[in-house]
Amino acid sequence: MAHFALVDSGNIVASVIVISNDDCGGGTFPGSEPIGQAFIAGPHPGGLNLKGVWKQTSYSGSFRGCFAGPDFIYDPVLDIFVPPAAP
To answer: What phi, psi does 16 have (nearest 5°)?
Structure first.
């Protein structure tokens, strides 16, 4: 399974979804990311709209720093996800 994070205009992660490795070219990053992004942007049953900026994230943390979750910050310069600050 491959995980993709929806990043809003402020570089904040809004949500994370899971798609099949088959839908992103086998799931091997970084080649899987543009294939997964195209799948996510495509038509979906019931008119589900998944438009936006989607970045692949690693459940094991093997790329992009750590596994993204809601309210994490995406740093486009370092190309990593950063956990939100502790309260």
So the answer is: -130, 135
Question: Under DSSP, is residue 21 helix (H, G, I), strand (E, B) or coil?
Answer: helix
Residue 61 CA to residue 35 CA, distance in Å, equals 20
> Quick check: helix, strand or coil at residue 27?
coil
Q: How far apart are CA 51 and CA 54, in angstroms?
A: 8
Q: Is this prediction's pTM over 0.70? A: yes
CB 18 within 8 A of CB 56: no
Tell me the pLDDT tens digit for each residue of 19-64. 999 999 987 999 999 999 999 998 877 777 788 999 999 999 999 9
Task: Give the chain's radius of gyration (CA, Å).
Answer: 13
Q: What is the residue type of 31?
A: G
